[in-house]
Write a structure and sequence with these properties.
By secondary structure, the chain is of the alpha/beta class. Helix content is 39%, strand content 16%. It has one domain (50-346): Rossmann fold, CATH 3.40.50. The chain has helices at residues 3-38, 40-48, 126-137, 160-177, 190-204, 221-227, 240-244, 247-250, 257-260, 281-294, 324-333, and strands at residues 71-79, 82-89, 112-116, 141-145, 183-188, 211-215, 268-273, 302-307, 343-346. It comes from Daphnia magna.
Length: 347
């Protein structure tokens, strides 16, 4: 090949490469920010990630196919034309007990965990099932649900209000049949935002659960977006907040846990891993500090347990901590109401 043609080929390659880079930069720094700012549906899908449906091929009607013994599937109507898929996992000691109705088991006296999962996936996520099995072995009921828009629940408009409405309706179902059984609301990741607002509203209505557990929580969704690793490439944009955080409140995606926690009058336990890159532990500590500073001194305690980064639990695998069963057993079955707030532990 003659030198002249080589030079032309190199120039064309450079021009093509620059065009590709320019297109990528245009999409990243023009299209994505403008879409997030002016397209609420785009915001909702990025916050909830309902289209990331793993594992695939789940038979929600048969929880045993996912390795859960003593579990049943049901659907609850939570709103007009909205039904959510729910699994009820029985305590280990009740698996072989015959009840006239499935709901009768809720009134036997075992503690009941209402589990509110984070974004993406479904109630059949592998790390979620790991946790259900631990709670089942501790002889707790687990009621776990998929919010509207997820899995086999009604596919419809998703919002903070919608998720809280779904969670409240499932709580009401539990309350109806639980008699005097202890009810614990457990939220993970985005589910901590759902749990915080749901429990705050229940407390306002004098219907507080007995315990609240917040696993890998943020203080509010605006700070979470500012600190999320995927937002790193957008942070140099001068109008970052105008594009990415200011629209959240207007579009019903605030998840202001730091505001709600001030009005939660039941005991609170916060769990977080030091190596959580999705929700940095600093956000959980901000939430913890807000709880300590804003709740009346005479209210039940708020406690914080962080898991050392050397264990590698990150965002989803605190369920694998050997200490977790004893931590949860002590928190649920012991008289924590008498303890003082401000207890902080590293394991």
């Amino acid at each position: 090949m003659k030198p002249f043609f080589r030079i032309r080929l190199v120039k064309r390659s450079i021009i093509s490469l620059m065009q590709i880079i320019g297109l990528i930069l245009f999409i990243l720094y023009i299209c994505v920010p403008l879409s997030f700012r002016f397209m609420p549906a785009f915001q909702r899908h990025l916050v909830f990630l309902p289209y990331l449906r793993w594992p695939v091929g789940v038979d929600f009607g048969d929880p045993s196919s996912e390795g859960l013994n003593g579990a049943r599937n049901l659907y609850l109507e939570t709103d007009a034309d909205v039904k959510v898929g729910v699994w009820h996992v029985l305590p280990e000691s009740l698996i072989d007990v015959k009840f006239e109705t499935a709901e009768e088991a809720l009134g036997v006296g075992n503690p009941i965990i209402l589990y509110l999962h984070g974004n993406s996936g479904s109630r059949a996520g592998s790390h979620r099932i790991e946790l259900y099995k631990i709670l089942q072995s501790l002889n707790y009921h687990v009621i776990t649900m998929d919010y509207r828009g997820y899995a086999d629940s009604t596919l419809t408009y998703m919002s903070e209000d919608g998720a809280v409405t779904d969670a409240t309706a499932v709580y009401d179902y539990i309350k109806k049949y639980s008699k005097d059984s202890m009810i614990v609301v457990w939220g993970h990741s985005l589910g901590t935002g759902v749990a915080s607002r749901t429990v705050r509203q229940l407390c306002d209505d004098k219907r507080s659960p007995n315990r609240l557990i917040l696993e890998s929580p943020f203080n509010n969704l605006r700070d979470e977006i500012r600190n999320h690793p995927l937002s790193y490439i957008f942070r140099p944009i001068p109008a970052f907040d105008w594009f990415f955080t200011e629209p959240l409140v207007a579009n019903n995606l605030a998840f202001d846990s730091d505001k709600h926690i001030a009005r939660i009058d039941c005991p609170i336990l916060i769990l977080h891993a030091q190596d959580d890159a999705v929700i940095p532990i600093i956000l959980a500590k901000k939430l913890y500090k807000e709880a300590l500073n804003s709740r009346p001194a005479g209210w039940p305690p708020v406690q914080f347990i962080e898991f050392h980064q050397d264990f590698g639990y990150a965002h989803k695998y605190i369920c694998r901590a050997p200490e977790l069963p004893s931590i949860i057993h002590e928190y649920i079955d012991s008289g924590l109401d008498s303890r003082k707030s401000g207890s902080q532990l590293i394991v």
